[in-house]
Amino acid sequence: MVAEQPQPVVTEVDAIVVGAGIGGIYALHRFKQQGLSVLCLESAAGVGGVWFHNRYPGARVDVESSEYCYHFSPELFGEWRWTERYAAQPELLAYFNHVVDRFGLRGDIRLETPMQSARWVPHEARWHVATATGLHFAGRFLVMATGNLSAARDPDFPGLADFAGEWVQASHWPDRPVDIAGRRIAVIGTGSSGVQTIPVLAAQAEHLTVFQRTPNFSVPARNGPSDGALIDAIAQDVPGRRSHLLATRAAITSGQNPLLPYAAYTEAERTSRLEWQWAQGGQGMNRVFADQGTDQLVNDRVADFVRAKIREIVTNPAVAEKLCPYDHPIGSRRLCVDTDYYATYNRANVTLVDIAADPIERITPTGIQTRAGHYPVDLIVFAIGFNAFRGALDRVDIRNERGATPTGGWQRGPRTLLGLMTSGFPNFFFLTGPGSPSVLSNLVLMNEAHVDWVAGLIAHMTTNGYDTVEPDRTAVEAWTGTVAEAASKLLRLGVKNYMVHVNADDGSRVFMPYIGGLDRYTEIMRDIAANGYPGFRLSQLVAPNQTAAA
Ligand code: N01
Fold first, then answer.
1. For the chain, how far is it from start to end, CA to CA, in angstroms?
2. 199-209: per-residue pLDDT in tens?
């Protein structure tokens, strides 16, 4: 006799939110406020998302703290005091924990409960979600708040398994002390993470060897105490500030305004704008001239300026030259924001290895073997980035009733409507997805905008008796075209980086985020909502008198 399998106990909620990071925390709060039952699944042992995992030495935000924080609650904004212009990871983690407790959300978050699979069950109009811990949930809406830069790229260097020392990933830095002092350390990768951690590690290590494949442009953060007077002034009218930020290109406003094209300035004014921005620090170097992202000659002027600064700072001319990026326009890859990055290469205990010229062949038991030499190390830090945009969707098994996965049709780049939904997947949202301004913008405000919009859509469905929403295929194709068109004239489209999808068949490129601006994007979202959600198919799959489980 075959033993009967016990039926899993299924907990029913209105919305299942996956991820307790920036977007997930706000989604949980916002949906609860509108009367929905909500559950948030989180794989980590704590809340905070990227700010839980990215605890490498030197990790801090590169958008100013007065902007990189929630604006949905004036009270929350007014009561929190940032200590630094750019908050460090521990302070950010404390902030997200504070938000969770302040709004009574902790009880709705299941920590160490990774979502494993999700299935759409049409006759119930429900997503059935199973966790790696053996729990089962059913929800009308499934909201992936899993981020775009959260699925770390795993190191696959030959020989790593035989390395006798220790290795860590910057983006999943262990939650335990990692010895730095007195050790010989290697950092592989010089994106934002590498650029932030290299100076901090160098200050303690016996020796630090940096393995750089592509130099990136980096500008000084000029970090310091936060501007209390500025924060107090914003606190007087947080809703006004929020609307203002959402009506800007990226909700990152530090820098110079008004922004005119290069030709509008005299030569003396151009130099003074560049010098002012360098002295000011931060992402504003992307916005010194309105046309620096589209006109190669203008871009060259900004890039030459930063390269001259690198040569001024780095005393060894050969090292300075290796650090100067020539292969991409400035701003075409994410601009790094650093504290003492270039000056770190003046230290006697720091070596720069150009692995474009001298590639890593393998990891040995005692260090790193390049074509030209062997570098003995005790600790390897991999700062090699993420499987951007789709990595967090691909690492779980999400299927619609035909067995398809959300990214299954994305061979030639993501196909989304508003970077929030894809066709064939009813009631399935991914916050700040490809096709939205996402990583080009301040992700706290971007998440707020997405969550508010989804909350409005759910309210509209409830009011009008719909249980299912799904984007039309034609609307998805049209939006995918809009995203491509917005990027078509940009210098950055031709540059290799995690924002660009390269088609395997013909090598053509797709810029994944929507670069038309958060201002334009939020206008489009508002219009769609105001006009009854054109492009989104609203329907009623389950008759009102049927119970969901019937
Ligand atoms: O990742 P990246 P990241 N062998 O992809 C190199 C956000 N962020 O974690 O350029 C050798 O930028 C790779 O080389 P190449 C922010 O949006 C924010 O640093 O491909 N090297 C590159 O140098 C940022 O843009 C903050 O040639 C290899 C590096 O690794 C995004 O996260 C802080 C390699 C990866 O750079 C990602 O930044 C940190 C290999 N096999 C991150 N594979 C703040 O807010 C990759 N590389 C402060």
1. 29
2. 999 999 999 99
